[in-house]
Amino acid sequence: MFEAAAIAEALRNFVWDSAPVLALGLDENLCVTAINAQSQRVLPATTVGQPLAELLVAFNRPDDLAARIRQPGAVHRFTISTASGMPETLGFRFFPLPGGTLAVAGLDFAEQQQLRTEVLKLNSDLNNLTRQLHQTNAELRELNQLKNQFLGMAAHDLRAPVGLLISYNEFVLEEAGETLSAEHRGFLQTCRATAEGMKQLIENFLDVAVIESGQLRLECAPVTVAEIIAGVRPLAGLIAGKKQIELIVAAADEARTVCGDAAKLQQVLVNFISNAVQHSVPGQRVWLTVRGEPTQLIFAVRDEGQGLSPAEQARLFAPFARAGTKKTAGERSTGLGLAIARQVIAAHGGRIWVESEPGHGATFLFALPIQETTQPTEPT
Fold first, then answer.
1. 230 shares its domain with 169
2. pLDDT at 325
3. Taking the model in full, what pTM does it have?
């Protein structure tokens, strides 16, 4: 037959050495004087000597801690600070002893079950939301494809009649220009400028539709700086000349070669120059420069316009983005040109950016990796 004293001693040793509960000895001032093995693993190393109240998290610290301790057998839920830094809520019981109190704390199984239930519910809700998100994304992709298809078809069908309008307008101005009054010539010139703007808008929409559909195809081949510049000069000179802007071309290392789609690269440069001209006033200059570095070629277009703020620069290459500075002759823009340029340069493995300060003009740049060519050796 077991003796009560032996049983009590065995239980004490178990609780103090092995049980997965916290046991804390408290003195008359409710300071911790001793802790069991589990407490040493869970609580901060500085626990012994601290008031029990200091171990409790502030938002769950009772004002009547001493009164609660005088309620033997009652379970009190306190949130304590642990060595890991994560708070943990436990159920405390207090037992009076000669010269102090024994505090025993274990996990609150009811709270654990509640937390487990809430976690399972949240996980189920998250799975449902994830499925809904996947479904919504699939629907959005389908709608985006339909949008691109419609946009491409509409733009393609509009390009031919707009081109015809421009051609007949130019024909009338050339053939009957001398017989028309200045007012009528002005009407025709306004119609031509509007039609050209519509044509550019249509071309931009077609480019966007191709890019967003993932069908942008580059016809890459080795091309020299001189060849790229030669394809840009005529149209760029015409754009600048119409507004009495001086276009200065300074291309170093014209024999250097990149691997790229010459037409697309020229489109980007013309866009840069067109933007620079639109933000310049007659008599100002625009520079097109190319400089070679060991591993890349950097193309740059600089103007003497109003410049751009850092906020404007950050959003400039996004679709439909426009700078806060007004174009000097009221030119209209869709805000698609630079977004298309960004995609074209990215497809070449290059990078595109802008450098500017308000009041000191802007420089638009893109860098392309250099394609070095090896000259064939003469047979001996």
1. no
2. 55
3. 0.51
